[in-house]
Automatic annotation (TrEMBL):
Keywords: Acyltransferase, Cytoplasm, Glyoxylate bypass, Magnesium, Metal-binding, Oxidation, Transferase, Tricarboxylic acid cycle. InterPro entries: Malate_synth_C_sf, Malate_synth_sf, Malate_synthase_TIM, Malate_synthG, MS_C, MS_N, MS_N_TIM-barrel_dom, MSG_insertion. This is Malate synthase G. Residues 158-190 form the Malate synthase G alpha-beta insertion domain. Mg(2+) binds at residues 411, 439. Involved in the glycolate utilization. Catalyzes the condensation and subsequent hydrolysis of acetyl-coenzyme A (acetyl-CoA) and glyoxylate to form malate and CoA. The gene is glcB.
Length: 698
């Protein structure tokens, strides 16, 4: 339940009002009454515009639905289809050539290439771990994962054989990244031995050893003959620390379940702790109470003895929610809920102003910038709306123009098809674009829901539109000057336990021209950092081709036929239903928006709402076109509910799906499928929020 406080005609959750006034506005020296009046004025202007943009989405979708319905049974005419999309305003003309003008961007974003973490903002421990993942132990990363090609560690303490394999692999990395003259790192006798082929790679001395740099990333070789590892090592090397997660996105969106003022309070409180530098979290591990807090900086001395400092933490973005959802944390004068994206823009920016104005222990941006990732925007009008909104937030908070930077997630079809125009709409504040296979596929299916049955989900990864989407995103970003000024990112490696496979495959993101890519854990960030030592992304970007046209991108991923066998249909249904139930039961019952969820083969995958969107839309599409029946889906849901129950059997807080089919979790799963075709853009949030609130209300 909300306890509301009146503020300038708004009804504000009392705890949110208290947080903002006492912890943010007061330290900033801002007048609270003036702030709330300014916020109310901003909402009076932007809330109706937000609603109009959502209505435009629905209008375009209705026209596209009608187009496909009228042509049912006829062959698809690609030229006619593209002309139709232009006629209704879904496709806009390409902008005249331009270059982005973003200024005051930190090097972690602009001129360095490396891994990126995305972390649920509601989980303080995960948030701290991610922020502290700027540096990671390569020895630990290899010892504890399957990225090392060696027998697994034997249980019962340190396995010296495994350890020796880790050390040998570490030396191989040093030979590749920091080659010596006429010898291997394995031959060194101590830290004074050996000479670099490129002496400019040596940066200085830390209190632990020697600091080097390769492809813009730092490497710390730790020498310590007193440590358990160092005392058995010929050269006394105890570890290799890599600069890893250059940037982290604290996520208010797809990886959290935030449905009311209580949830938003936790989100903003955790962001405040990250920005101020005082966030802490205590937890029990092995019978001991441990406390996590933010790491300090790493100091070193150069060859002349001068002191320098490197950040010990990731540079932090915050991902606001998109334009669709509203939240009861604040009510407008007419009693309606506030557009949540507008609330996020104001609250996260106000908190970040503490960093801009020097009220932070460590500081986030050294250039006085605020970094916000904006997801789920459809086309350039919605990007322009975000640009105008950020202008208004800057004015409200007394910030210089373009202090707030934006990351545009290219995860909706109308954005992909008009990406140049989308970038132009935010050209003086853009610092990030990326691709996201799952959300983008969900929108691909929903946009063409009535064109016919879609190909199987697994086949999507080889489809024409997806290849075009991934390549065009990078090419369009480069064409408009993002290289050296902004991040061009690629999506998540979802399997945190399959690091060996990640090390083989994820280097492809760098070779495609991405100067950052998402990984699921600090350990994965340390391992993925090796790829950026192997490949210089900025050199790769210079040789990539110009963007291709729209033909392949607009190819609808329709099935070539629907004569799948009963076994194939059952396999597809089970895969979708199991993934959907495994995620929904945690979201609705536990309020967990991102966790390692076992898939149908019991492989743990880091799942968020995007996974749900593709599964629910795929099932809704097949149901709409009669590929499967409601009875077949219910049969699969029931069988997969039993499987998900078995997978969660070890959790004492878990409420089984079987026997509780009328409870919110199972009902939410059914709604996501059977009401899927009618959901706005195929999004899962409206139904999930509705059922989560039912669950929270008891």
């Amino acid at each position: 339940m909300h306890d509301y406080t009146p503020r300038a005609g708004l009804s504000v959750d009392s705890r949110l009002a208290e947080l903002l006034e006492s912890q943010v506005l007061s330290p900033l020296g801002r007048d609270a009454d003036a702030f709330w009046q300014g916020f109310a004025d901003l909402l009076a202007s932007f809330a109706p515009r937000n609603a109009d943009l959502l209505a435009k989405r629905e209008d375009l979708q209705a026209k596209i639905d009608a187009y496909h319905t009228e042509r049912s049974g006829k062959p698809h005419d690609a030229a006619e289809y593209e002309a139709f999309l232009r006629e209704i305003g879904y496709l806009v003309p390409e902008p005249a050539d331009f270059q982005i003008g973003t200024q005051n961007v930190d090097p972690e974003i602009a001129t360095m290439a490396g891994p990126q973490l995305v972390v649920p903002i509601l989980n303080a421990r995960f948030l701290l771990n991610a922020a502290n993942a700027r540096w990671g132990s390569l020895y630990d990363a290899f010892y504890g994962t399957d990225a090392l090609d060696a027998p697994a560690a034997r249980p019962g303490g340190y396995d010296e054989e495994r350890g020796a394999a880790v050390i040998a692999r570490g030396r191989r990395f040093l030979d590749e990244a920091l080659p010596l003259v006429d010898q291997s790192w394995a031959d060194l006798k101590d830290e004074h031995d050996g000479k670099l082929q490129d002496e400019s790679q040596w940066v200085g001395h830390t209190d632990k050893g020697l600091l080097f740099k390769n492809n813009g990333l730092h490497i710390e070789v730790v020498f310590d003959r007193e440590s358990p590892i160092g005392k058995t090592d010929k050269a006394g090397i105890a570890d290799i620390n890599l600069e890893a997660a250059l940037t982290t996105i604290a996520d208010c969106e797809d990886s959290v379940a935030a449905v009311d003022g209580e949830d938003k309070l936790l989100a903003y409180t955790n962001w405040l702790g990250i920005i101020r530098g005082d966030l802490e979290e205590s937890f029990n591990k092995g019978g001991k109470t441990l406390t996590r807090k933010l790491n300090g900086n790493k100091s070193y001395k150069d060859g002349s003895g001068n002191e320098h400092s490197l950040s010990g933490r990731s540079l932090m973005f915050v991902r606001n929610v998109g334009h669709l959802m509203t939240n009861p944390a604040i009510l407008l004068p007419d009693g309606s809920e506030i557009p949540e994206g507008i609330m996020d823009a104001v609250f996260t920016s106000a908190i970040s102003t503490l960093d801009v104005e020097g009220h932070a222990k460590y500081g986030n941006s050294k250039h006085g910038s605020i970094y916000i990732v904006k997801p789920k925007m459809h086309g350039p009008e919605e990007c322009a709306f975000t640009n105008d909104l950020f202008n208004a937030v800057e004015d409200l908070l007394g910030l210089a123009r373009h202090t707030i930077k934006v990351g545009v997630m290219d995860e909706e079809r109308r954005t992909s098809a008009n990406l140049g125009a989308c970038i132009e709409a935010v050209k003086d504040r853009i610092v990030f674009i990326n691709t996201g296979f799952l959300d983008r596929t969900g929108d691909e299916i929903h946009t063409s829901m009535r064109a016919g049955p879609m190909m199987r989900k697994g086949e999507m990864k080889g489809s024409d539109w997806l290849k075009a989407y991934e390549a065009r995103n990078v090419a369009i970003g480069l064409k408009h000057g993002l290289s050296g000024k902004a991040q061009i990112g690629k999506g998540m490696w979802a399997a945190p336990d399959l690091m060996g496979q990640m090390m083989v495959e994820k280097i492809g993101h760098l070779r495609a021209g991405a100067n950052t890519a998402w990984v699921p854990s600090p350990t994965a960030a340390t391992l993925h950092a090796l790829h950026y030592h192997q490949e210089n992304v900025f050199d790769i970007q210079k040789d990539l081709p110009e963007p291709a046209g729209l033909d392949a991108l607009l190819t609808i991923p329709l099935a070539k036929g629907t004569n799948w066998s009963d076994e194939e249909l059952r396999e597809e249904l089970d895969n979708n239903c199991q993934g959907l139930l495994g995620y929904v039961v945690r979201w609705v019952d536990a309020g967990v928006g991102c966790s390692k969820v076992p898939d149908i083969n019991d492989v743990g995958l880091m799942e968020d709402r995007a996974t749900l969107r593709i599964s629910s839309q795929h099932l809704a599409n097949w149901l709409l076109h009669g590929v499967v029946t409601e009875a077949q889906i219910m049969d699969s849901l029931t069988r997969m509910a039993a499987k998900v129950d078995a997978q969660n059997a070890g959790d004492p807080t878990y409420m089984p799906l079987i026997g509780n089919e009328d409870a919110p979790a199972f009902q939410a799963a059914k709604d996501l499928i059977f009401k899927g075709a009618a959901q706005p853009s195929g999004y899962t949030e409206p139904l999930l929020h509705e059922w989560r609130r039912v669950k929270k209300a008891g």
